[in-house]
């Protein structure tokens, strides 16, 4: 299976900056076609820019992801965006349950669970984030916290094949901090998550790592046995930087 690299641009850029970034990704993707032999690349702009991204990336191999979607396909959900419309637009992936949404917007596991089901119904691939905070890590609760999140967010979720769903292990303390767990620790947690997720879903799903990935640590993390890919925030905001990170791993 191809490794998957997901660029999460968050809400970091102006409209013009995003437009330029999309164009620069497209340019570098066209010049480095062979990277797609072994890698699936997904760019996740904010909602405002998804339409433009689908148009500019149309004939490139870069797939498009949204950073969230609603827990319903249609209806009175002021401010939300439906997975159904994301599908219609040409989006392929949806990040769900990112810790920034959990912490700053109060998203809870039950809501994330509903969103996952709707995203799957629409034949989009959810990229579901789980992760422990620093306090939980310090008291040795990482695995218990992750298991609890998994059980809740995957409750009654049905997948047919392993590529239907992606899990992202994102330790909250590693996001944007410049710190990451040691690679053997990442691998061990991914192995744990894979076993536990298989018990719930009856299929083995890919698990990507996110949190302060950059071009210096990407290769080592990606080579770990249970790491199926990377979710990259800060290091994806400049096209050259991101493609340097990808190119070493093609
Ligand atoms: P970071 O963000 O790479 O900037 O740490 C990753 C993420 O939040 O997905």
Task: Outline the fold blueprint.
Elements: E1 3-8, H1 15-31, E2 39-44, H2 50-56, E3 63-66, H3 83-89, E4 93-96, H4 99-105, H5 109-121, E5 125-130, H6 134-138, H7 142-153, E6 166-169, H8 183-201, E7 207-210, H9 218-223, E8 229-232, H10 239-247
Parallel strand pairs: 1-2, 1-8, 2-3, 3-4, 4-5, 5-6, 6-7, 7-8
Helix pairs in contact: 7-8
The structure holds 2-phosphoglycolic acid.
The site of 2-phosphoglycolic acid has 13 residues, from strand 8.
Description:
Helix 7 (about 140-155) runs parallel beside helix 8. An 8-stranded parallel β-barrel has the order 1-2-3-4-5-6-7-8, surrounded by 4 helices. The model has no long low-confidence stretch (mean pLDDT about 95). With about 250 residues, the protein is of the alpha/beta class. The chain is globular. The protein starts with a strand and ends with a helix. It has 10 helices and 8 strands. Helix 3 (about 85-90) links the parallel strand 3 and strand 4. It has helices spanning about 15-30, 50-55, 85-90, 100-105, 110-120, 135-140, 140-155, 185-200, 220-225, 240-245, and strands spanning about 5-10, 40-45, 65, 95, 125-130, 165-170, 205-210, 230. 2-phosphoglycolic acid (PGA) binds near residues 8, 175, 212, 231 and 233.
